[in-house]
C-alpha cells in the first residue's frame, strides 16, 4: 500500500481464523489503521489480494457489510443525539440487532442513556463506539485502538466484554493496539507490525518463548567492573563464573527478556533501518 509515493505497507501476508482474536500490534505510524481500513473496504489498496468473509472488501455489498462491526479510531459526529436514541437508530439498520437497553448495560452506559453524546467523557464515547460496533451482532469485529482514553477499570471491563464476544458468541475480532499488555491479554495471536512489515506473528506464548530464548546475565567481576552477557544457556555461564570466582558471584542477576523487550528491540531496529523482517502469515483468508 502506498499513499502517492509513500509506501506504508510492504507485503503483509496474514491469515485470521474464524472465532479468533487477532491483534495487530505496532507503534504510531506502523500501518495498522491503513491495514484495517483496507480490510474494511474503506481504502483502496495499491496492490495485493484481500478476502474478508469470502469477499474482496472493495466489492463487498450491503449484506457483507452487515456482517461486519467497526469501532474506528476517529469519532463520528453524532453530537446532537442522545445515547439510547443513537443506539436504537443504528439498531434499525440490521436484521437481528441486539436490544439497545441490554447493550447499554453491557458496555456500562445505562446511567448515560438519556445524555447527549457530546456530554460524554472520552472513555464513555469509546464505550458507545463499541456498542455501535456490535449492535448488529457482527461475525467479524474490527477494533481500531479501542481502549484509547479508557481508565484502568474501563479497560478491564472492555477486555472482559471482548472475551465474552469472542468466547461465548464466536465473534472474530481484529484488534489494533500499541498496548502490549492488551494484546497479550486478549489475543489468540499477535502480529507485530513495524514500518509496514510484519516482524513476528504467533500466539502470546510463542512470542514470549522467542523473546526469552536468550537470557541476560549480569554480575560484578573480581576487579569491580559491572559485566553483562547474553546467552542461551545461563546456567552454564553462571556455573563457569562460580567456578572461576571460586565462590559466590557478586551482584548476580539472570534475566529473561520480556515480550516488551522484544517489541521495543524490533521497533528500534526498524527505526535504525537494521531490521530484516520475516514474513509472518501462511497466506489465506478469513
Ligand atoms: N491518508 C493518508 N495519506 C497519506 N499518508 C497517510 C494517510 N494515512 C496514513 N498515512 C501514513 O501512513 C503511515 C501509516 O499510518 P497508519 O495510520 O496506518 O498507522 P498506524 O499504525 O495506525 O498508526 P497510529 O498508531 O498512530 O494510529 C504513516 O506514515 C501515516 O503518516
Description:
With about 290 residues, this protein is α/β, with parallel strands linked by helices. It has 2 domains: about 10-210 and about 260-270, P-loop containing nucleotide triphosphate hydrolases (Rossmann fold); about 215-255. The chain has 10 helices and 11 strands. It has helices spanning about 30-40, 60-65, 85-90, 100-105, 120-135, 150-170, 180-185, 205-210, 235-245, 260-270, and strands spanning about 1-5, 5, 20-25, 70, 140-145, 170-175, 190-195, 195-200, 215-220, 225-230, 250-255. The strands form 3 sheets. A 6-stranded mixed β-sheet has the order 4-5-6-3-7-8, with helices on both faces. A 3-stranded antiparallel β-sheet has the order 10-9-11, covered by helices on one side. A hairpin with a 2-residue loop joins strand 7 (about 190-195) and strand 8 (about 195-200). The longest helix is centred in the middle third of the chain and has 18 residues, at about 150-170. Mean pLDDT is about 85; it is low at about 275-285. Bound molecules: adenosine-5'-triphosphate. Adenosine-5'-triphosphate binds near residues 3, 26 and 34.
Amino acid at each position: 500500500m502506498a499513499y502517492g509515493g509513500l509506501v506504508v505497507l510492504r507485503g503483509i501476508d496474514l491469515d485470521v481464523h474464524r472465532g479468533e482474536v487477532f491483534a495487530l500490534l505496532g507503534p504510531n505510524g506502523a500501518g495498522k489503521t491503513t491495514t484495517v481500513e483496507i480490510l474494511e473496504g474503506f481504502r483502496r489498496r495499491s496492490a495485493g489480494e484481500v478476502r474478508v468473509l469470502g469477499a474482496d472488501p472493495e466489492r463487498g455489498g450491503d449484506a457483507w457489510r452487515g456482517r461486519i462491526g467497526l469501532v474506528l479510531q476517529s469519532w463520528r459526529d453524532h453530537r446532537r443525539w442522545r445515547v439510547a436514541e443513537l443506539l436504537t437508530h443504528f439498531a434499525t439498520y440490521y436484521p437481528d440487532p441486539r436490544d439497545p437497553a441490554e447493550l447499554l448495560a453491557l458496555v456500562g452506559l445505562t446511567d448515560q442513556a438519556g445524555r447527549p453524546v457530546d456530554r460524554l467523557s472520552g472513555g464513555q464515547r469509546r464505550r458507545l463506539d463499541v456498542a455501535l460496533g456490535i449492535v448488529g451482532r457482527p461475525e467479524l469485529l474490527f477494533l481500531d485502538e479501542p481502549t484509547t482514553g479508557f481508565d484502568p477499570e474501563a479497560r478491564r471491563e472492555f477486555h472482559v466484554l471482548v472475551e465474552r464476544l469472542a468466547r461465548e458468541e464466536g465473534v472474530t475480532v481484529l484488534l489494533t493496539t500499541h498496548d502490549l499488555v492488551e494484546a497479550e491479554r486478549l489475543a489468540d495471536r499477535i502480529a507485530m507490525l513495524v514500518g509496514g512489515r510484519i516482524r513476528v506473528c504467533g500466539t502470546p506464548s510463542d512470542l514470549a518463548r522467542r523473546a526469552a530464548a536468550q537470557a541476560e546475565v549480569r554480575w560484578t567481576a573480581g576487579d569491580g567492573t559491572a559485566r553483562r552477557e547474553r546467552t542461551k544457556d545461563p546456567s552454564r555461564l553462571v556455573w563457569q563464573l562460580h567456578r572461576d570466582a571460586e565462590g559466590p558471584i557478586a551482584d548476580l542477576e539472570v534475566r529473561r527478556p520480556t515480550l516488551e523487550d522484544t517489541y521495543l528491540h524490533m521497533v528500534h531496529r526498524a527505526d535504525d533501518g537494521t531490521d530484516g523482517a520475516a514474513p509472518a502469515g501462511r497466506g489465506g483468508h478469513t
